[in-house]
């Protein structure tokens, strides 16, 4: 169909892509949106709509926010794991290294924008096998209460000297 605005973005070998976008957003709304965009912006818009539509089909309440929240929690958990590993490295480092003052406390950029538990249930792709590690706080505190474990920034400073 030469005049169809959907044809370049919804190939016939991907019928579910159009079906999801149509189900979630409606064909007339997508048509209006695409007509309001410049031609070079349309492919990105369709890809975004298709991603959100697929996420909404899987999770009608949270959509892609569920995946974002999951990934933010995973980043936070991995940062804690990295801080603990760096603290362990500092504990076993050479005594000739002069300790530097601890870095200022930091808060992840998303801590103020997302509740700590956005989802009331587990995502199907969530792997909980490693999410309940009990890390020990490094000497001098810094393990809990939102403060980062001491040592991660210090360790990297030592390497640069």
Automatic annotation (TrEMBL):
The lineage of its organism: Eukaryota, Viridiplantae, Streptophyta, Embryophyta, Tracheophyta. Residues 1-89 form the LOB domain. It comes from Senna tora. This is Protein LATERAL ORGAN BOUNDARIES. It holds the Pfam family LOB. Belongs to the LOB domain-containing protein family. It comes from the Eukaryota. InterPro entries: LOB (IPR004883).
